[in-house]
Amino acid sequence: MPRYRLLVNGRRHDVETEEDTSLLWVLRESLGLTGPKYGCGVGVCGACTSHVDGEAHRPCVVTAAESEGRHVTTIEGLSPRGQHAVQRAWRELDVAQCGYCQPGQIMAAAALLAREPDPDDDAIAAALRDNVCRCGTYPRILAAVRHAAG
Ligand code: FES
User: Which SUPFAM superfamilies does its entry note (predicted)?
Assistant: First the structure.
């Protein structure tokens, strides 16, 4: 099997896997980073959202091979002990219900605030539009992103 050198959460990893294995599978199964969730597996639900070179990406539709030389960040690496402003806002506003989609929501929100520190409601809605929450926590998500930005 081919080997790939990945940089994940600031650490280098040599991973042996099939050429077409998704980055999501490598993160979860090879590296034990289970924050990115498997929802649809086809880039539609956003449950797996992580950062690649600082931008929100969906590792279920990226291969390990395509990820070589990129900086991958999962929610585990977003901040030491969950102290990113978005994570604090999520806790303060008690956003999560079942919680399954929330790492992806948080990573999408963090990427938004990194490129646009004070987004209006339309910008927040547009950035998070494709992150699905089956519990319908959207109003709290919107409020928490506003809170983190403020
Ligand atoms: Fe990656 Fe749904 S699992 S977008």
Answer: 2Fe-2S ferredoxin-like, CO dehydrogenase ISP C-domain like
- Please tell me the class of the 80-149 domain: mainly alpha
Widest pairwise Cα distance in the chain: 48
What ipTM was predicted for this assembly?
Answer: 0.98
> 94-123 pLDDT, tens per residue?
999 999 999 999 999 999 999 999 999 999
Per-residue pLDDT, averaged over 136-149, amounts to 98
For residue 45, the ligand 1 atom closest to its alpha carbon is: 2
Nearest Cα residue to 56 out of 11, 135, 114: 114
Residue 41 CA: nearest ligand 1 atom is 3
